[in-house]
Amino acid sequence: MKYPHVVIQTPSLPATQLFLLYHAAGDNPVAMGEIGHWFAGAFPHALVVSVGGPLQDDDGGFQWYAPSAGNHQQQVDAAMDGFIASVRHWQQQSGVSAQATALVGFAQGATMALEALKVQAGLAGRVVAFSGRYATLPQQAGTRTTIHLIHGDNDIVLPLTHALAAEERLTALGGDVTLDIVDDLPHAIDDRAMQFALERLQFTVPRRYFDEALSGGKPGGEDVIMLM
Asked: What is the pTM of this model?
């Protein structure tokens, strides 16, 4: 694996869930890994890994692309093959399916996770996007992935308007999305944001289960464990 990473938790038995954490531009997998302990505590059978971006900046931080005034979508697209490869790598290493995989991103990491679904629908069963945004809003959406947007209302780096626009677009397209707004939170993840994330993962039933039930199908068992 060519990307820097930190393994937060390896379960004693084969993993039944996979949490992949992706940090902001200029940060590192060790720092992002701090929130990984919350997921490890709530999901003891999960493999939890914090993955760093492939590019190192002058200050020693990592990123998937260098933020600039250029075309944001082109920057994201250029980094996307590597990002998706990092997800597939850990799915193969762990033996965990896409439906039992959760991508957790903050800022640029959230952007990469959200944008990855535009390229490969169903890459993961859940996405938790802290203080993130799409490079450009999607033109289509489905229910193969449940997207949880969590954003502070005092974020001046990536304003809340990005999350509001994403929720509105995904809902209009028939996607499966939730939005939790954290009062007075700037561009950061705090205990309240983490509680929102854990509650969504544990108690929000993916809409695809209802769709499958209405169509007479059976919901896939592997993602059910993410609700426990």
From this structure: 0.93
